[in-house]
Amino acid sequence: MIRQENKYSIQCLHCLEEVTSLWRHDFCSCFCGRVFIDGGDAYIRTGLEPGTNYLEFRATWTYNKRTGKRHRYSKRLALREGRTA
Q1: What is the tens place of the pLDDT at every residue in 12-45?
Q2: 66-74 long-range CB contacts below 8 Å, 24 or more apart?
Q3: Domain total for the chain?
Q4: Which residues in 4-35 are b (16+ Cβ under 10 Å) and which e?
Q5: Which of 14-23, 35-44, 50-59, 61-70 bottoms out in mean pLDDT, i.e. has the lowest?
Q6: Nearest CA to 77 among 42, 37, 49?
């Protein structure tokens, strides 16, 4: 039997930190505080300050119970740009 989990993360393009929310209501922001992610695997909520950009990533973990092996596949989903007023 193979089990699959998705984890979402974002990378701030100002301080270059990758931020991951691990569980529901786990609000996390980057070092400079310009971007945040919330929700873990229950939901995804992201935000950013105007003029800041970030990259969205999805990491898919596949676990095979029979062999005990775990694999990670990462994929860049999108570049998000904060618009200035």
Answers
A1: 999 999 998 888 889 999 999 999 999 887 888 9
A2: 66/1
A3: 1
A4: eeebbbbbbbbeebebebeeeeeebbbeeebb
A5: 61-70
A6: 37
The predicted structure's pLDDT at residue 22: 85
Helices (H), 1-85: none
Please answer whether residues 21 and 59 qualify as being in contact, where contact means their C-beta atoms are separated by less than 8 angstroms.
Answer: no
Distances (CA, A) of 84 to 47, 48, 52: 14, 11, 9
Tokens of 55: 């990259």
C-beta of residue 82 within 8 angstroms of C-beta of residue 50: yes
Domain encompassing residue 50: 2-81
